[in-house]
# Entry
Amino acid sequence: MNLFFEESGDFKVGTVLSQAGEAYQVEMPSGKRTKVKSRDVMLQFDKPDPATLLEQAKAVAADVDLEFLWEVAGQEEFGFAELGAEYFGHPPLPFEAAGLVLALHGAPIYFYKKGRGRYKAAPEQSLRAALAGIE
# Structure
């Protein structure tokens, strides 16, 4: 089993070596081992391998249309998997879900983080003001 998880504000992947209670011992593609709490796990997946998933997720994140995603999200708080089903038109595959998390996390102008894997679309006035400030 493999994990996509958040550690110190970054998203990482790794293969589970062991599990003890609420913690996993994970080996990352670099060979480094780390302890991951279950609350930090965003996704569990079997395929593809962790390095491939992260590579594919970054490609998905780069292709996400943030304007459209913001429109689809509505004004209620949501989980990334729920939004992924609407955005992709099917329950997201692991690399799509991970890519969506990367896109949401990387777009604080469009989406406010409300908790682990939970987001809320920015109000329209705030979004327009932020976009105008960038230009």
In short: The mean pLDDT is 94. DSSP finds five helices and eight strands in the chain. The beta strands are 2-7, 10-20, 23-27, 33-37, 41-45, 78-79, 111-115, 118-121. The radius of gyration is 16 Å.
